[in-house]
Amino acid sequence: MTSLSTDPNPGSPFLMHPADGFLCDRPDEGSGTPDGPDNRVIQWGSRWGSRVLDFRRKTYVMGILNCTPDSFHAGSRLPTLGEALLAADSMIQAGADILDVGGESTRPGSDPVPVEEEIRRVVPVIEAIRAAGDTMISVDTRNRETAERALDAGADIVNDISALSRDLFMARLVAERGVPVVLMHMRGTPKTMQDEAIYDDAVADVLRELGASISAAVAAGISPLRIIVDPGIGFSKKTEDNLRLIRGLAAFRSLGMPILIGLSRKRFIGDITGRPVEERLAGTVAANTLAVLAGADIVRVHDVAEAVAMVRIIDAVLRTAP
Question: Which residues pair with 53 in a beta bridge?
């Protein structure tokens, strides 16, 4: 496996907001926002070297490694170590910045996986990727035990769809390790979440609830300079809610945190296009383009090569100085 470049091109601090056609200022390092600090550059150390996410310079692509037999996109299921490592190598070659390794399907209606099984699925994959190179790795889990074992095996980032609310000891682990954490918005659990997709104003409600998750994380000792937020497209959201969140994504800049968007091949794309999950690549690229133009800093995707091409074009136009 090849290691990833950490020397992105310098760029413009401006971003076009597609919904209303004005230029939104993307704050420089240390500029902050009225509502809190701005972590446009996240830096941390690990046993395998220093890490940097510089969101002033580029949009990052996170490749999805579903080490599961039942994820919603059949083409992404990687139930064996060999299949997972082949997919990881392919994603790295295609230009992925981060590999997101998960061992539990969280599709709507899904049941939780026992922690022991989740660990069995993800830890060998993370160990093998880390042994092969310095690619940045996140672990997609709601469980402290899994996160701890994954960090010990070589993971750099914790990606928690429950925003640290499912396991009371997860926040303590993240704080002690000093690693970045993705806080995603979701109501309920994957089993029940679609029953709770009732909003007065999807953007305002999700923004407020994510703000509460950030406050809880900081109160638990996590640095606000280590937090990434995710509005949770498809998690306790109806199609119209997902569209409103993408359209209003720039509002999440008020949190002062980098934004991750995870909409790859999801149901709302099929609702709009009439395409099954296997035929939603074009819709995914279109939706991710709109999300990046509206302020997303990381796109979480099944199809890395297409996402890399997309963000390179956008970054070349909007982040490269004239």
Answer: 42
Which of 266, 267, 280, 319 is flagged as catalytic? 266
Q: What b/e sequence results for 168-202 when a residue is b if at least 16 CB atoms lie within 10 Å of its CB, and e otherwise?
A: eebbebbbebebbbbbbbbbebbeebbeebebeeb
The span from the CA of 108 to the CA of 110, in Å, is 6
What is the per-residue pLDDT for 25?
Answer: 41
The residue with tokens 């395998």 is 48
Q: What is the pTM of this model?
A: 0.86
- DSSP H or E segment with residue 54: strand 51-54
58 belongs to the catalytic site: no
Residue-range domains of the chain with CATH: 14-318 (3.20.20.20)
Active site residue 26: no
- In the numeric block, the tokens 């704080």 are attached to 175
Neighbours of 17 (CB within 10 A): 17
